[in-house]
Design brief:
Helix 4 runs antiparallel to helix 5 and helix 5 packs antiparallel against helix 6. This protein has a single domain, classed as outer membrane lipoprotein receptor (LolB), chain A, CATH 2.50.20. The longest helix is centred in the middle third of the chain and has 22 residues. It has a 12-stranded mixed β-sheet. The protein has 7 helices and 12 strands. About 7% of the residues have low confidence. By secondary structure, the protein is α+β, with helices and mostly antiparallel strands.
């Protein structure tokens, strides 16, 4: 059953990357490139993951465990200023009816995490992640390798891997069937915006190799940071690749809304994949993703109120590791 969390983790990662991102092809290409170069902006996002499982042969307790992963919602806002190297990510994550709020501040190589899960502000420096292991009672998503004997792997994805994935999927979308669907008035946090609507469709023969290539990028990144767990990680990703081989992509729809300044001010992704009932698919019958991302205040000043940090109100990753666990009942 531990294969479910790793699949969910990969799906959420890929979905986040998909939503970040006259002649309809030329217009979309121009807008996607300009949007990628934005130095500062605000982004509102939401993502829903719905999963179905083959569970007829499982006990009531096992079905209850599977039920935790049937519906996951993530929503929040992201503010950034690349020139200042500052950003703020406000996230609400809901799993199995339990909500978790996070505020993740970034400033010049340091990250500050504020959440009710922790008694103090967690301060993370770039080099801290190299030796960090998650507390032992974290089962989702960090405990997904427990069944194979690997404990507490480092699943933080590097900026380099995110960059590779983003570039790969943007280039893939540019190769899709791009159609302009007319003009609409789009409501954004900054007011109504006149936008051109574009629809992009990709065939299964393009999507399945893309998903497998994305898994390869994630696998290489995770193994490079967890060489001691390389064999177990290889097994997990090999299983996911087998699932992709037998998968059927039921639906893929990407829509982009481009304003008069040639920015992609909103985009949506709908993706559904189903799996046959055999050993290669494991427990998963299907999953469906629905995501929306809206951007505004492009190239305008972004002010982020960072929390005051001192020894009394903060803790390091090393101190978190010594605690041994998160509060009971959270994961």
């Amino acid at each position: 059953m531990k294969r479910v969390p790793v699949l969910l983790l990969v799906v959420v990662l890929l979905t986040g990357i998909l939503t970040g991102c006259g002649n309809p092809v030329e217009s979309f290409n121009k807008a996607s490139e300009k949007t990628e170069r934005v130095n500062s902006a605000k982004v509102k996002f939401s993502s829903n993951v719905n999963m179905e499982f083959y569970e007829d042969s499982f006990t009531a307790e096992e079905k209850k465990e599977l039920g935790k992963y049937k519906k996951v919602t993530v929503q929040g806002e992201y503010y950034f200023d690349k020139s200042k190297k500052e950003n703020l990510n406000k996230i609400n994550f809901n799993l199995a009816g339990k909500g978790v709020d996070l505020k993740i501040y970034g400033r010049k190589g340091e990250t500050y995490i504020v959440t009710p899960l922790l008694p103090k502000i967690l301060v993370i420096k770039e080099d801290d992640l190299k030796s960090f292991k998650m507390p032992g009672n974290v089962k989702m998503p960090f405990g997904f390798l427990d069944a194979s004997g690997t404990k507490n792997p480092d699943v933080f994805i590097s900026k380099e891997a995110v960059g590779k994935l983003s570039k790969y999927w943007i280039n893939l979308l540019k190769k899709g069937n791009i159609a302009r669907l007319g003009n609409i008035i789009l409501s954004t946090p900054d007011g109504d915006v006149k936008a051109r609507k574009f629809n992009i469709s990709l065939k299964e023969e393009h999507l399945k190799p893309a998903l497998k290539e994305s898994l390869d990028i994630l696998r290489e990144d995770m193994i490079s940071k967890n060489p001691k767990n390389a064999k177990d990680l290889e097994k997990v990703f090999a299983q996911l690749e087998k699932m992709m081989d037998s998968a059927k992509i039921e639906k893929f729809l990407y829509e982009a809304y481009i304003d008069r300044d040639d920015y992609i001010v909103e985009d949506t992704v709908n993706l559904k994949i189903s799996f046959p009932e055999d050993k290669s698919s494991g427990l998963v019958k299907s999953f469906e993703l629905e995501t929306t991302s809206t951007m505004w205040d492009m190239e305008k000043p972004v002010t982020i109120d960072f929390p005051a940090i001192n020894k009394q109100n903060s803790m390091t990753l090393d101190e978190l590791q010594k605690r041994g666990e998160f509060p009971e009942g959270v994961f």
